[in-house]
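Q: My labmate handed me this sequence with no annotations at all. I'd like to see what the chain might look like in three dimensions before we decide whether it's worth expressing. Could you predict it?
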Amino acid sequence: MVRLIELFFRDFPHLRGPFVYLRRASLRDSAAWISLRKASQSFLQPWEPLWDEQVLAPSGFTRFNNYHRDGWRDGHLRGFLIFHNESDDLLGGITLSNIRYGVNMSASIGYWIGAPHVRKGYMQEALILAMDYAFLSLRLNRVEASCMPDNLPSSRLLLKSGFAIEGEARAYLHINGVWEDHLMFSLLARDKRPRLPGL
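A: Here is what I predict for the chain of 199 residues:
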């Protein structure tokens, strides 16, 4: 199903589940993106790279959009925004990055959700859709994820979505101005994972 949707939309698939859909960002998303990120700043900042003074300005969204546009074009990144099916409200974002082919066939996944939308199941649904896309459309073998050890909601989300813990990487990412250790997770195409009804 995801593959058919991708073919219909060519290089810009819309991935739709029961409650959310994923699509590539466009310039029309600027106001909603800035508003949600601003409302969620204190919630998101502890888990993200240090925000600069432009990150909540229109130029910050333009930079974000251009980076994702170039990644789609070059093939090393597939970035999606997450929207509610009924309201079309922006909920968050999810990105497959560092996409590698050849003997590797893998990618890394990262995600964020706005503070008003946590603990409603939206991110797990988005993650399931993104994994279907990674394994069925991109034909990857492996998707990697990481989170800080004290980010328990993210760890629980990954485990509930079929990811396995592989270990801990010291000073893995520069988060909010500090080099932070991260738990490392992976999901393989052959692993058992949750699926959405009808997909």
